[in-house]
Structure formats: C-alpha cells, structure tokens
Amino acid sequence: MSDDNKNLSDDLNDMLGDAKEGAKKAADKASELAGEAKEKASEFADDAKEFAGDAKEKASEFANDVKDTLSDGKNVAIIAHITIIGWIIALVMNSGDKKSEYGSFYIRQMLGLALCGLVLSFIPMVGWLLNLGIFVLWIMSLIGSLSGEKKLVPALGSLFQDWFKSL
C-alpha cells in the first residue's frame, strides 16, 4: 500500500504542477490580452481625437461658409429689388471692401428699371401700360437674383449695365 500512496502522492504533485503551470499560462495569456486591449484602447483614443479634430475643422468650415453666404452678393441683389429704400440699403451694403460683382449687377438692373418706371409714369395711358411691362421685367429680375444667376433684363439690361457701370 505504500507504493500506492507514493503513486498517489506523485500523481497529486504532478496534478498540482500541471495546475500551477496552467494558472501561469492563463495569467500570461490574460496579461497578453490586457496589453492588446490597452493598445487598442490607445488606438481608439487616437482615432477619437482625430475625429474630434476633423469635426472641429468641418464645423469651422461650415461657419465660414455661412458667413460667406450671408455676406454674399445674393442678399444685396435681393434687397435691391425691395423698393427704392431697399435699393439704397443694397447700395450701402455693396460699398467699400464688401463689394460683390453679383450685387452690383442687380443694383444696376434695378436702378435702370426704377428710372424707366419713373419716366414712364409721367406719360398718360401709354406710359401706364408700359409700366406693367416694367413690373414684369422687375419680376423676372427678382427671379434671376433668387436663382443666383446674372440674368439681364430683356432689351434694356445690357444698356443698364453699360450706363451704370460705376456702381
């Protein structure tokens, strides 16, 4: 029986050694996985910082685009179509370093239409009927300014651009 005890003791020692070796391998593997997780977390943090930087840059670009759009000549062109007071406001907005070719184009168009309407209003009957045509031309000019395209008023637009080129 002593041989059986000895064999049993040897088997237990072998099992304990195997258990210790298995525990050590498990600890090494856990340490390795923890290192990989730490590496991936670091990569993720770097990616998140890069994404945040890109998002900040895009937001800044968007803000600049909004500023450009608001200072764009399109607003000036649309305002120029709103009575003589709107035309004066558009002229002031388009003066100095903020001058845009698009805004100037429609300021010249509206000045020409306003002067034509004023002159035609002094001619009884025929002038009044022709003022309806001026109104149609005003509508066409307004639609052109809203669409963002430089559209000359039919028949007179090129003359207005030439006569009022200093504006």
From TrEMBL:
Superkingdom of origin organism: Bacteria
Keyword Membrane applies: yes
Region described as Disordered: 23-42
Gene3D superfamilies according to UniProt: Helix hairpin bin
Protein name in UniProt: YtxH domain-containing protein
Keyword annotations from UniProtKB, A to Z: Membrane, Transmembrane, Transmembrane helix
Membrane-crossing residue ranges in chain numbering: 76-93
